[in-house]
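During the reporting period, we have paired protein sequences with backbone structure tokens. One record among many follows, to show the layout:
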Amino acid sequence: MHRLTVDEFRSSEKIPLTVVLDDVRSAYNVGSVFRTCDAFRVGKVCLCGITATPPSAEIHKTALGGEDSVSWEYYEDTADCIRALHADGCFVWSIEQVEHSVKLQNLPDAIPSSAQGVAVVLGNEVKGVRQDVVDMSDGCLEIPQFGTKHSLNVSITGGIVVWEFARRMIPELHKQKK
């Protein structure tokens, strides 16, 4: 299957995407996000507030080792994380249904030329992304939904959003292998 070892993964080129988890309650959701980030070679995961951190049996159960391959950082306060990402030149999107949010399928193709990467913030399973974090973000994205429910599990949201960014960014990675 041509899978990378953990060491090969760590030294491989990543897509310039950071996933921020803002007060995610379930360690199983955290593990699922790590596994998704491993699958698409995401650059980093930032775990904030009450979000569980490795080592954790619950994270490992769903991450299946993704917590060992994907780089991660912990921030006590998500606002500090956003400030650090902005200082590094990242364009920050909160994934939230708010006025003027951009539908995921309408995501601009171009990252602002000044951006050194992109970050997406995924929020708490009940409360979503904190309002102060939404206010600090450069924009908000939402996944259109057409049923009776208007929310998705945070790990499912993370998978959909990471895939959308990865499919736009991964062609650069594929060019390396040829």
Q: What stands out?
A: The chain has a mean pLDDT of 92. Residues 150 and 158 are 15 Å apart (CA to CA).
